[in-house]
Specification:
The protein is an alpha/beta fold and 376 residues long. The chain has 15 helices and 16 strands. Strands 4-14-13-12-11-10-6-5 form an 8-stranded parallel beta sheet. A 3-stranded antiparallel beta sheet has the order 1-2-3. The chain has a 3-stranded antiparallel beta sheet with strand order 7-8-9. A hairpin with a 2-residue loop joins strand 2 and strand 3. It is globular. It binds one RNA strand of 74 nucleotides through helix 5, strand 14, helix 11 and helix 14.
Length: 376
Amino acid sequence: MTQKFSYSLNATDGRARTGVISTPRGEIRTPAFMPVGTAATVKAMMPESVRATGADVLLGNTYHLMLRPTAERVDALGGLHKFMNWDRPILTDSGGFQVMSLSSLRKLTEEGVTFKSHFDGSKHHLTPERSMDIQKLLGSDIVMCFDECPALPASEEDVRKSMEMSMRWAQRSRDAFGDRPGHALFGIQQGGVTEELRGISAEKLREIEFDGYAIGGLAVGEGQEAMFGVLEYAPNMLPLDKPRYLMGVGKPDDIVGAVARGVDMMDCVLPSRSGRNGQAWTRRGQVNLKNARHADDPRPLDEGCSCPACSNYSRAYLHHVYRSHEMISGMLLTWHNLHYYQDLMQGMRDAIEAGQFEAFQAEFHATRAMGDIEPV
RNA sequence: GCCGCCUUAGCUCAGUUGGUUAGAGCACUGGUUUGUGGAACCAGGGGUCCCCCGUUCAAGCCGGGGAGGCGGUA
């Protein structure tokens, strides 16, 4: 018999919580950070290296894989896990984020969204039903509802209308998903930065019933203060006994703040994208390896880090290979960034289970406040 | 020696029939990235336009002289 998808809560400390999501493809320790592998790869990383950083689950993307290589081709080749050589859980975004990020390339109606491919101009119709179909073809373990992610700032009226449509799409997604043991469907709360709208959205999602609940529509221009404001109440509107996923977040301090407010899962392109662009995230904050001050620095990026970039290479080397446009630059920094993010998650899980999360946060902020090490 | 071509930012080069504060790419100095259209993007610093003389209201551009460089030829 197929193992079911389930979530169990382990420990709480304040509003922060640890738990485990069980799937037929393995367990996900929460709070979890999920590296983003949009196009069937975490850019610049081998899957075994991603795993070595401590990741339990990856993201894939409906829109991008639909265009290329197409969901049907992935299906014919044995599914996304086999295709990309990652046998652990995969969460797929529904294409809802692209409704915003590719707004100049699409038309939106109640029925769904028509995208004009940035590759060849061909038209692709994405509806809740089609998004469910694609995510099924991909073999996704955690399927996301098709929603509209509106950019902020926006008028409350626009956010309300958008949220209401996303809730109708959530029902259509639920209906189309059907009964798929071992696979999960997550609803996505919308409502911008308005508590009332977030409440209406949460109520609707709970009524439909999902295997997990995402908080969507944040980190889209509102700023950290406003986002934390929403997180003061949004997680509490969602069921206690299901995972809560804050979509698209974020920077390390966003992540710590979100976990403190009861979030269980997050994803973000930042560690991987920054890595390819010469930027590192460390315990002492953001470090730009492009900067001239690293050129003669024999010290590691972060001497407290055990990743390959920090164990085997100097800042001077990381600086050199970035400036030389060598591919290993993106590889090493992406690895470091993902390793740091996973270290951070493990640190939070340990602290929560030990009832020390407040002290952990104080230490986290104190270390960052020190700033990066002085130049040699 | 003679003939031809060239000389504009650190580098490689654009610069209309003379007309505002002389541009680009790369390099340099920084910054930004939040459910990836991104090994991306943004901003900034930097120039006796080889030198001198002339013509002109006005010269990177036209004329003369000189200095470097490249090529050809004795």
